[in-house]
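Newbie here. three chains, one complex. Structure please?
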Amino acid sequence: MTDGLSATFFERPVLDVARDLIGCTFLFDGVGGRIVETEAYAPGDPASHGYRGQTARNAVMFGPPGHLYVYFTYGMHFCANLVCEANGVGAAVLLRALEPTVGAERMAARRGTAAPRQLCSGPARLCQALGIGREHNGLPVWEPPITVLPREGSDPAATPGDAAELPPMPPEPQIVTTARIGMSAGDDGRRWRFVDAQSAFLSRGLRDNGV
DNA sequence: CCAGTGATTCTCT
DNA sequence: GAGAATCACTGGC
């Protein structure tokens, strides 16, 4: 099996992990792509599900790093997060968008559209496209059906055939930070959304940026 | 712009 | 325990 990311990658400050995940590859049951958009939810962050302490719903967030935290919202959508920081700390990175590289046909079937930017661009779309649901809450990301590959060794299965051709993807993502999406109250100036500015697969375009 | 949809959590009895 | 408010979204007007 290919070397994927392990617990030590996730047992770090959640902002660092959210940034470093951009350009990595996330696969679920052999379907997925390159991570182009994430959001960090930190300890002490009023927008985080963990802000008011551990509950049955958010328990996985407080568990060991490197596990999948899946939650159900708005009566119809699932969203997937990767748990970060030490065991006992409530922190996670929301996966907001992938650039599809593997299994686009299966994604299209589940999503009901073949438009590439409608497959994985958005946290609930991503879960629907990859078939992620409540039953996957708490799974470790280094065991099947999940694979998270580091940025350098981008997915070998994505480009069958000649490796001599020039890769269509840029080698390094151009990472830009923005405010997070969908915060009902103000977000206190946090810029905890991380995107690859060169990607055409973001859930929404770039607005404010900079540091 | 706004409605759908239902689990979860908060705020009282 | 019951009732209400909220919700890290999406698709269709």
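Moderator note: Residues 14-21 of chain A form the longest helix (8 residues). The radius of gyration of chain A is 16 Å. Thread marked as resolved.
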